[in-house]
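Long-time lurker. I teach an intro course on protein structure, and each term I like to show students one example going from raw sequence to a predicted 3D structure in token notation. This year I'd like something fresh instead of my usual example. Would anyone be willing to generate the tokens for the chain below so I can use it in lecture? Attribution to the forum is fine with me.
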Amino acid sequence: MSDFPQPSVRPSNPNFSSGPCAKRPGWTVDALKDTPVGRSHRAKIGKAKLEELITRTRDILGIPADYRIGIVPASDTGAVEMAMWSLLGARGIDALAWESFGDGWVTDITKQLKLEDTRVFKAGYGELPKLGEVDCDRDVVFTWNGTTSGVRVPNGDWIKSDRKGLTICDATSAVFAMDLPWDKLDVVTWSWQKVLGGEGAHGMLVLSPRAVERLTTYKPAWPLPKIFRMTSGGKLSEGIFKGETINTPSMIAVEDQLDALKWAESLGGLKALIARSEANLKAVQSWLDKSDWAANLADDAKVRSCTSICLSIKAPFFAKLSADDQAAAAKKIVSLLEKEKVAYDIGAYRDAPSGLRVWGGATVETSDIEKLLPWLDWAFAQVKAEFASKAA
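-- Reply from a regular --
Happy to contribute to a lecture. Here you go:
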């Protein structure tokens, strides 16, 4: 083992997972005390909670008044699938992928829906496709932030205001941490376990008036499962967007998300959330700029994510290791930090290049990020001592 000195200070909260991410500072189970457990979500109290969640979400994010907001099944995945299966097929599609989840949507479009008029724009981990080549008169499907690659879309300038197609945006690790241009987005999805630290299984689906028009005037050529159906008799099922969920939600998870939204309001809303997340990225990047072994997976500073901060290992010996040994070395860093109760769940996503991923969303304290960084140096030193001989 290396003689690199072990840091003496640990993060107060070692939870740096990219989903479910850390709870808001100061969270305890007491935050759930007002949950109407044992009550129907269709009862007056249950429906009021769901409506309150939608209203607070709209207010914090600045979602236009004429956009519908719904709580839907199956997390962000369910929300994206509902949108794609209900809306796609009316015109050609431009699908963007630069990480695992975008690749998944491309697979669904081309292999499951089998939509032939699809152009796929791909880029490797750490990069973006050429956004200027996207045709917004076609339907566009993309992630705003690549959770598994640490790369985000820098802005919405590439999306035409007078577009004929719909923009379908998976924003699950961007919303509440990045400023989304709602006028450029027709469908936006996310899940509660991202950014604000909610629990899983629930998705959020936002529809612009243009998306609603498509829903009510276009009928897909394929049958839709019940949990995907947002219309009845050619009309929008408005209840979905007033808290009348398609299936039974967890009222405990609802209460937890309400607590997170109230916390966000107490900070000052979206601007404060963005500032906290950007401060976390700045702390990590300042350390990376001086590191002799780690780098941001995204070379271009303009596209670096402030939530899913992905780190590659640039040490010369590491590049000489086999792919299996690179994966083993990265996993050893993760296991050492978990054993020391310094950081949990910071391994790179299974399909991404071997490395680390540190969540920097607003619920993570910058002071904890700063305490984590010396431990990364320590853990790497231990792994280098063990693996360097394999690179000879």
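Some talking points for your students: The two ends are 18 Å apart (CA to CA). The first strand starts at residue 68 and ends at 73.
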